[in-house]
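COMPLEX REQUEST
Ligand: pyridoxal-5'-phosphate
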Amino acid sequence: MDLMAPERFTGSFTQQEPIPEEGIEAAVAVLRHGRLHRYNTAPGEVAETALLEEEFAALVGAKYCLAVASGGYALGCALRAVGVKAGDRVLTNAFTLAPVPGSIAALGAVPVFVEVTEDLVIDLSHLERMAGESGARVLMLSHMRGHLCDMDALMALCNRLGVTVIEDCAHTMGASWNGVPSGRHGLVGCYSMQTYKHINSGEGGFLVSDDAEVMARAVLLSGSYMLYARHRAAPAPEVFENIRLDVPNVSGRMDNLRAAILRPQLKRLEDRRERWGVLYRTLEAGLAGTNGLRLVPRPAAEVYVASSFQFLLPDWPEGRIRALIARCAARGVELKWFGAPEPVAFTSRYEHWRYAAPVPLPQTDKVLAGLIDMRLPLTFSPEDAALIGRIIRAEVLAVQQSGEEVAAVVLGD
Ligand SMILES: *Cc1c(COP(=O)(O)O)cnc(C)c1O
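STATUS: Structure written out below.
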């Protein structure tokens, strides 16, 4: 072996596992009978979508569950269902993904951004301050990249302030805080089944809640027409009686094809969480104690589903971070950076969401300037995770030693 040749990683950071055979067979059965619409059922048949909702409600211990077209749709539907109107202010994390402020803006409501801590969770003291300053009565809490804040403290604070909590669990399906599943602390929990999340139907979303009125509104909003009695995890038909003519149809249903693909994956969620945990902890061990690199501590109360990995390069000059990203890329390791001046692919930050007229948040700026992010698909083996850890560690040390910096590429050149 050539001792001078550096190790290279050759796997794909965007390759998911295939759909389980059981899901493929169920999908083919739906295609064969042709009843893809959730309310198109043969006599006595229960739609795949209704069964999926029932199974997910049981999994997270919720009274009600609604499956919808996407995670972003679930967020907008939840906001409408709890009564957010155009012009209302809605608190949300400054560190999140674009569809979160987008769901608020889509209602004509106004996002009010809250600072992130260096542990990558919402800053509770800034939340209290912004709730007071803005008068907002709803928090869209995004568990961005799967990091849960102290949910007991957050709920105590929001209850005291009279702030309704909607949870964005796009990165925390299967996670929990002090034994309570993520999505079950707030009034409504929202999830995504988009390809890069924890179960995969290409697109898809869930809402869960124990509140009968809110869920009846969500079911009507999703486009149930007067067929809501065909659900199995929805409130009783009486709950719909008084509101069914007042709630608009904002069509965004789940279909039976995607539900068929998802049902077998729900059964595997726990197994996936364990496998993600092995990859995460392998990487974490490989990077521990690397000079100049800060790992994100994981509280004992948190059970996480680590479909991605983050670390911080506190106070690094931008040029050095660019040099590190280039060096890692040359060895097959794809890192994403939340500090880049321009949004790249899926990665953007609050100041890029100009429609929301964001005000500067110095603490968030400082954290995001050094925040590195990496996907961790389940097609990686623990050996892959160890190799990726060795490459990052070596390049972090090498780039600091050489003092190398790479200038920003001017876009449009
Ligand atoms: C993906 C994602 C969403 C939205 O989910 P879609 O299903 O893609 O609409 C919301 N919040 C976060 C943090 C996400 O990553």
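REMARKS: The radius of gyration is 22 Å. The chain has two domains: 21-265, 269-402.
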